[in-house]
Design goal:
Blueprint: E1 2-7, H1 11-22, E2 26-32, H2 36-46, E3 50-51, H3 54-61, E4 65-68, H4 75-84, E5 88-91, H5 102-111, E6 116-118, H6 126-136, E7 143-151, H7 173-189, E8 194-201, E9 211-218, E10 221-228, E11 238-245, E12 248-253, E13 256-261, E14 274-279, H8 280-283, H9 294-309, H10 318-335, E15 341-343, H11 344-349, H12 368-376, H13 378-391
Parallel strand pairs: 1-2, 1-4, 2-3, 4-5, 5-6, 7-10
Antiparallel strand pairs: 7-11, 8-9, 8-15, 9-10, 11-12, 12-13, 13-14
Helix pairs in contact: 1-13, 2-13, 4-5, 6-7, 7-10
Length: 392
C-alpha cells in the first residue's frame, strides 16, 4: 500500500481524492484545505485525518506521496516542501507560474530519486496517445502545419472572484486551459523555436484572459493555437489537434482519431492508404478501477505504480511539464510586446513578477480563490463522499 495525501479540495482536488480513496493500492492518510466546511464533510463521512496546515499534514500524516491541486501560485512552495521531505509529488497543471525556478525542483527530485507527475490527463487518452505514436513513426511524414484547439463554456458572464479570475494566482485561459493543447503539441513536436503574434483576449473576465491565439514556430513549419473558454456552443471542454504532414493528415480529439495517408506513402501496420478512423473506445485498455473518466483514473494509477516501483522517469514528469510552462511564459511575454517574436530562450531569461506566498514557516492553504472553489464544490463533496460510503 502507498500512503497518499491530497491538498486543495476544489473541483480537481475532490476528483483526485475520490480516485485515490478508491484505488486498491492506496491508503489515504490526509486531506488539506482552507475550507472548514469541506474538511468537516470529509471528517464526518470518511473519518480520514484532515488538516488546514499543509506542513503539519506532511509531517504528521507522513505520506509517501502527495497530490497537489491548489491554485498554480501555490505549487512551487508546496512542491518544494514535499520534495525536501523525500515525498513523491503529483501536481495539477500547469506546474509553475514562473518556469525559471522549476529547474531547481526538477534537479532536486532527480537527485533524491523521487517520482514526479503533472496532471496533463490527455496523454492518457488513447486517441491522443495513438496520434503521438503515428507522428513519431513518420506515418504522415514531416509535420509542416498544426492546429491546436480548446473550447468550452467556463466563463459565460462577468467572472466571479475565484482564483481562476486572477492572473496572479494562475488563472485565465492561457494558464488554466491552453496548457492542455500546448502540452499535446510539445509532446508531438517538441520545443518550438519561438512564438509570435500572441493575443490574449478578455471577453467577460476583468482581470485575465478568456481567449488565446498564437503561432509556434518550428524548423519545418508552424503550429497555430486557438483557445476560448467563453464558448457557449460547447457542452464541456473540447480539445482537438490537427496535424498536416508531407505524407498525410491526422485529426484527433478525445473520441476518435482520423488518419489520411497519401496513396504513394507507406501505411503503418493496421492502417491503409486513404482515410482511416479509429475510436478511443476501441483503443483503450480498461483500467483496473474507474472513477470520473478512464484517463483520470489511469493517470493516478500510473503515478501510484511508479511510486511503488520508484520509477523516476515516466509520462508527464516534471521535466516534460516544465517545457509546457516555458511555452506558456513565451506566449504571455510575446502578448505584452508590440510585434516581433519572443523565443523560448528569452522566456527562460525573464523573471516573473514576484508571487505572494504564505509566510511564517508553515505553509497554509490561504487563498481567497481556493476558499471560493471549495465553497462551490461543497455539494459535490457531499454527493461524492456519501456515494463512496455506500460503496464501502
Amino acid at each position: 500500500m502507498t500512503d497518499v495525501a491530497v491538498v486543495g479540495l476544489g473541483k480537481m482536488g475532490l476528483s483526485h481524492l475520490s480516485i485515490v480513496n478508491a484505488h486498491p493500492d492506496v491508503r489515504l492518510v490526509g486531506a488539506c484545505d482552507a475550507s472548514g466546511l469541506v474538511l468537516d464533510v470529509l471528517s464526518k463521512y470518511t473519518g480520514m485525518p484532515v488538516f488546514e496546515d499543509y506542513t503539519e499534514m506532511l509531517d504528521n500524516a507522513a505520506p509517501e506521496a502527495v497530490i497537489i491541486a491548489t491554485p498554480t501560485a501555490l505549487h512551487e512552495p508546496m512542491i518544494r516542501a514535499a520534495l525536501e521531505r523525500g515525498i513523491h509529488v503529483f501536481s495539477e497543471k500547469p506546474l509553475f507560474l514562473d518556469p525559471n525556478g522549476g529547474g531547481d525542483l526538477v534537479r532536486l527530485a532527480t537527485e533524491r530519486g523521487l517520482v514526479t507527475q503533472v496532471g496533463y490527463h490527455n496523454r492518457f487518452v488513447a486517441a491522443f496517445a495513438e496520434a503521438r505514436r503515428l507522428v513519431a513513426a513518420g506515418a504522415i511524414g514531416t509535420v509542416t502545419t498544426t492546429l491546436a484547439e480548446a473550447y468550452g463554456p467556463v466563463v459565460l458572464k462577468a467572472a466571479g472572484r475565484t482564483w481562476r479570475s486572477q492572473a496572479s494566482a494562475g488563472g485565465g485561459s492561457l494558464y488554466d486551459y491552453a496548457a492542455h493543447p500546448l502540452n499535446l503539441v510539445t509532446w508531438y513536436l517538441g520545443a518550438p523555436e519561438s512564438v509570435s503574434g500572441s493575443r490574449l483576449t478578455s471577453i467577460f473576465s476583468g482581470q485575465t484572459d478568456d481567449a488565446v491565439a498564437t503561432t509556434l514556430h518550428y524548423p519545418q513549419g508552424t503550429a497555430q493555437l486557438s483557445v476560448n473558454w467563453s464558448d457557449e456552443s460547447q457542452r464541456k471542454m473540447t480539445t482537438r489537434i490537427t496535424l498536416w504532414g508531407t505524407r498525410g493528415r491526422i485529426y484527433v480529439d478525445r473520441q476518435e482519431l482520423q488518419l489520411y495517408i497519401r496513396e504513394d506513402a507507406p501505411a503503418p501496420e493496421g492502417y491503409r492508404s486513404g482515410w482511416n478512423v479509429r475510436y478511443t473506445t476501441d483503443m483503450t485498455t480498461a483500467p483496473s478501477f474507474y472513477l470520473r473518466g478512464e484517463e483520470y483514473s489511469a493517470q493516478i494509477d500510473a503515478f501510484v505504480q511508479r511510486v511503488h516501483a520508484k520509477q523516476v522517469d515516466g509520462l508527464n514528469d516534471f521535466s516534460s511539464a516544465l517545457l509546457t510552462d516555458q511555452v506558456i511564459k513565451a506566449i504571455a511575454s510575446d502578448a505584452m510586446r508590440e510585434g516581433g517574436r519572443w523565443s523560448l530562450a528569452d522566456a527562460r531569461a525573464v523573471t516573473a513578477a514576484p508571487v505572494a506566498t504564505p509566510s511564517g514557516g508553515a505553509l497554509r492553504v490561504l487563498s481567497g480563490g481556493l476558499r471560493g472553489v471549495a465553497r462551490s464544490g461543497r455539494r459535490l463533496a457531499e454527493r461524492t463522499l456519501r456515494g463512496r460510503k455506500r460503496v464501502s
